[in-house]
Automatic annotation (TrEMBL):
Gene3D superfamilies: Immunoglobulins. Signal peptide: none annotated. It holds the Pfam family bMG10. One of its GO terms (molecular function) is endopeptidase inhibitor activity. This is Bacterial alpha-2-macroglobulin MG10 domain-containing protein. Residues 82-206 form the Bacterial alpha-2-macroglobulin MG10 domain.
Amino acid sequence: WALLSVAHYLSSSQQPLAVQYTLDQGTATPLNSAQPLLSQLLNAQDAAFQLALHNDGDRKLYASVTQRGIAPAGNEQAEASGIELQATLLDKQGSTVWDTTAATSTSTLPLQQGQDYTLNVTVTNPGTAAIKHVALSTLLPSGMEIGTASADKPAGITYQDVRDDRVLSYFDLAAGETKTVKVKLNAAFLGEFYFPAISGEAMYQPAVRARTAGLAVKIMKVVPGAMP
């Protein structure tokens, strides 16, 4: 009802806008609207840019800039804001073959065809307040097959969706709490693949998020030095 009331008020309110914006110190572009809301698509490149606004009217204006997109494979950057995320890949002997603390997006992870692995994805709330509705998206290389999510998954996971190429988990995190999602994998197909970034975020707090960097993966018949 509140949104409907605001929409009705704004549709009947005569509060025209007059503003100019300058992108990267170029020529000023005027924007005018008879409505109290205005949206403008910026012709900005995929790089840092400078935006200047000048209010030509007599009312206070509130501006926001929103960017959307998907980073090309290999260009994802690890980040952590409000939550922490770590992933570790173990072989069937329980030895670590890869983890996000040491890996870089420029390295290639060799895996042996037919071998089983366990991926542990750990999410931690380092803050002093609870975080509700965390969505964890564990995407996997297309050359690997998912077994099942661990039967002993931590208590408190609200919902988990296991698909062909990803495991989606939803849960809350108390202050200082850590939860780990385990996924059984098999290196099924030979070839070179890409391990996409694993990401987690609070669904209704987009500033609370974390992400790993992506990683190239090569599934081989025999990995030099690997145990059979």
